[in-house]
Design a protein that fits this description.
The complex is a heterodimer of chains A (179) and B (637). Chain A is mainly α. Chain A is built from eleven helices and three strands. The chains are: A mainly alpha (179), B alpha/beta (637).
């Protein structure tokens, strides 16, 4: 269930019943309209459906647990106190939210945010991924994201020579946490 | 959670690009080397990247060109080390979209750099230039400055770290009149006090009336100058003419005793803060070149000054050898908002100053008391009633000992502690290892605390509470041996700066131990060190250099070794690691305001570093070194 942590939210939306989103694995989650406004995709889907009958919006690309987390974050955004957070505090907030996440989960989360058109959350997920990728080695990135090296050996040599100084910063490949 | 099906490789370019825009340039290039799609994306990202900062290395023109494509109209912030660049790179550097530009070591550029900036970078808000045209044969004159000042009409901060007296010209004041009226911060690397007075209050005629102020730099809030002599005339001219001044920083380093007319006296001090807006004041006379002090200022001057300075938040006084407890106490009691207090060469400063500091409502965060030899542990015990203390510099206070450390260890927010030359022993450091302070401490300096032995390392790290420590200075410790460094390596604290200068017992084993440092239980990391100074360590031989080569010390950026021994090996090392700054003549290795590093633990250091670096310039040359016959000229570099 969507968690709405402040009573004021509930009071505001007594007139507007919450929407229901159905995930790819059949989970049904509630989200208030005002919170859902952050997602351009949901808004578009709403316009397409007739208002009255179906309040259930199928979000077939997204699984239940990711959707739940996303709705939680969107709820946080609509709380008044959130807007008053300073830059450092916002950073801490997102750091705490993404603490101990594996990078592929952050990626998945970012993709979902992108699909649902929630720009702010997409941006923060990319920031988290950037923080995790920073100063990792080329080999690490290839391994974690299963990227195929499609350079020819000559190209690889040239690249190594050109960008050697960038690698020189050293590898902090903590294999455990991020993968 | 489900494993993500699409991996990064198949993602739309937009996502890869978004991630890349949040990365630093070296990371972007690293990513670019993984596969063709990423390389394409990186090239694309570089064409709209707004911030380009390369703090760690000095790129050549060839390396720089592909990284700063000319078709990037969004470039707003550029920070570079221009050691390897010259006028031929001007087209890469001069971008009309720039708001912020920091170019250091521009020795090979001519004054054209300034004029082109003035002509093309109309939106510039922040400009930092250091060492412009210092190489022989590069021309620069006041016309270049004129074009810069008249062209950059939105300039808010201007920092010129070089000798501005090259611009000496009869129109000097007029040129500065052209400066943007938005200029709020000005910092100059070197200028004569006569030029300063002239600039702010051009002499109308033979009668030198300092009451006439032109409207030059009307909105200036911050002024930082390194001058030849701090004089009454200069100080009173500055105070009268700059009505918005909140931050004043004046330093000099005279080559000889100044005459009365060219010195700061009680009268000059009285003039400070004429407009009542001053919040930060720094007046320092350094003994870098000659043992010269503010001999004409005594308690009366301080009293008169403190009278007007009740709103001050930061005060730094260096070289006021005639000021006694009365003067310093007045400051503490008059300035109720004081957060930062620094005193260098407080020769008469005693414990009495801090005797009733609890009674004041002060909440000091940065305290520096250097070369205050009359201070004892009692003073420190009183001082620590300021629980918010974050930086504490007690270097060269010879009478401070272990009891002081015991008091200090109760400070829960202390991030930086400097105790060079204090009379502390291993016992004192055990207090540090066990106290509240251990959890917050990031930087610790114990240079020259000669009683310390290897046991101090175990005292510090055995409790496993001192986890945030990143900078450690253990230089000039005659009893510190390889065993101590081994203990340090075993502690697995990811130290990033370690200084072991002039330790006679430190040898190759230490280097090997540091090279093999493991941080995590499972994975071989290699050392986390970015700075290692083993200059003049007694036991370093050629063997150590094998452990300084790659792949050891992968993150190393600064290395200090003795160049005169093993000359060939040192040269070979420097060649094989071109992006490591190798110092061979005993120069101090620096983190300067550029080294953002991880940004996490350098946040509080802005004020400490600049001044400390400047003062450290000649101060660390001990008597022994001078007797070694070091070239005298080296001291002034």
């Amino acid at each position: 269930m969507a968690t709405s942590s402040s009573n004021t939210n509930k009071a505001d939306h007594s007139k507007n019943p919450p929407l229901t989103l159905r995930s790819s694995d059949g989970k049904e989650l509630k989200i208030f309209r005002i919170v859902a406004q952050q997602s351009s995709t949901i808004m578009n889907l709403l316009d397409l459906e007739e208002e009255s009958n179906t309040d259930v919006i199928p979000v077939s690309e997204v699984d239940g647990s990711t959707l739940e987390k996303l709705i939680e974050l969107m709820n946080n955004h609509t709380e008044k106190s959130f807007n008053y957070l300073g830059v450092k505090e916002r950073k801490k907030f997102y750091n705490d939210f993404f603490a101990n996440w594996k990078i592929l989960d952050v990626l998945n989360f970012g993709l979902v945010a992108n699909y649902l058109g929630v720009q702010v959350i997409f941006d923060e997920a990319c920031q988290k991924m950037a923080d995790m990728i920073k100063s990792k080695s080329v080999e690490w990135v290839r391994k974690v994201f299963e990227i195929k090296n499609d350079f020819t050996p000559e190209e690889e040599e040239d690249l190594k020579k050109e960008n050697k100084w960038a690698y020189e910063r050293g590898d902090l490949d903590d294999g455990d946490d991020a993968i | 959670m489900e494993k993500a099906d699409p991996n990064l490789h198949q993602l739309p370019t937009a996502i890869i690009a978004t991630i890349m825009t949040k990365l630093d340039v070296p990371s972007i290039l690293s990513l670019a080397s993984t596969c063709k799609a990423f390389r394409c994306c990186a090239a694309h990202t570089l064409s709209f990247l707004p911030n380009f900062h390369l703090p760690d290395m000095a790129p050549s023109a060839d390396l720089l060109k592909p990284l700063l494509p000319l078709n990037n109209p969004h470039l707003r912030s550029l920070k570079l080390d221009c050691t390897r660049l010259d006028d031929s790179s001007l087209d890469i550097l001069i971008r009309p979209s720039l708001h912020e530009l920091s170019l250091r070591n521009c020795t090979d550029f001519s004054g054209k750099l300034l004029s082109q900036l003035g002509n093309n970078c109309k939106h510039l808000r922040f400009l930092y230039l250091s060492s412009v045209a210092e190489k022989m044969g590069r021309t620069i004159d006041v016309l270049h400055l004129e074009e810069l000042l008249s062209g950059c009409t939105h300039l808010e901060t201007l920092i010129l770290m070089f000798d501005v007296s090259i611009f000496l010209h009869q129109n000097f004041a007029l040129v500065w009149a052209l400066a943007s009226w938005k200029l709020t911060s000005l910092e100059i690397g070197y200028i004569s006090s006569v030029m300063v007075a002239e600039l702010l209050s051009p002499a109308a005629g033979p009668s030198q009336s300092s009451n006439h102020c032109s409207t030059i730099l009307p909105n200036l809030q911050k002024l930082c100058l390194s001058v030849d002599y701090i004089t009454d005339i200069m100080v009173s001219t500055i105070s009268k003419c700059l009505a918005s001044l909140t931050h004043l920083d004046l330093r000099d380093s005279p080559i000889m005793e100044p005459r009365m007319a060219f010195d700061l006296t009680n009268n000059g001090l009285q003039q400070i803060n004429a407009h009542g807006k001053l919040k930060h004041l720094c007046l320092v006379r350094s003994q870098e070149i000659a043992p010269v002090y503010f001999k004409r200022v005594n308690d009366l001057g301080i009293l008169l000054m403190a009278d007007k300075c009740s709103a001050m938040e930061s005060i730094c006084l260096g070289g006021f050898c005639q000021v006694t407890d009365t003067g310093y106490k007045t400051i503490l009691h008059s300035c109720s908002r004081l957060c930062r207090l620094k005193v260098f060469y407080g020769t008469h400063l005693t414990d009495l100053v801090f005797h009733d500091i609890i009674a004041t409502s002060l909440s000091l965060t940065h305290v520096g008391l250097r070369w205050c030899n009359l201070l004892t542990n009692l003073a420190v015990a009183r001082l620590v009633s300021n629980g918010e203390l974050s930086v504490l510099d007690l270097r060269d206070c010879r009478n401070l000992g272990d009891d002081a450390l015991q008091a200090i260890s109760t400070l829960a927010k202390l991030r930086s502690l400097l105790m060079d030359g204090c009379d502390i022993s291993d016992v004192g450091l055990s207090y540090v290892g066990k106290g509240l302070m251990s959890r917050s401490l990031v930087s610790l300096s114990l240079r020259g605390c000669k009683r310390l032995t290897d046991r101090c390392i175990s005292s510090l790290f055995d409790g496993h509470t001192i986890l945030e420590l990143r900078e450690l200075d253990l230089s000039n410790l005659p009893n510190l041996s390889d065993a101590g460094v081994l203990l340090l390596a075993k502690s697995r604290i990811p130290i990033s700066a370690l200084r072991l200068r002039q330790c006679p017992l430190i040898g190759d084993t230490s280097v090997m131990a540091l090279a093999s440092m493991q941080i995590d239980e499972n994975v071989w990391h290699g050392s986390s060190l970015r700075l290692l100074d083993i200059y003049n360590c007694g036991g370093i031989t050629q063997l150590a250099f094998r452990w300084l080569k790659k792949p050891y010390f992968p993150r190393l950026k600064w290395l200090g070794v003795t160049g005169s021994v093993n000359r060939d090996v040192v040269d070979a090392l420097a060649r094989s690691r071109p992006y490591v700054h190798v110092a061979t003549r005993g120069e101090e290795l620096g983190t300067d305001q550029w080294d953002d590093l991880d940004g996490i633990y350098l946040q509080d250091y802005e004020e400490v570093d600049e001044l400390e670096q400047w003062l450290l310039g000649g101060d660390n040359m001990s008597d022994e070194e001078m007797e070694d016959g070091a070239d005298v000229a080296d001291l002034f570099e």
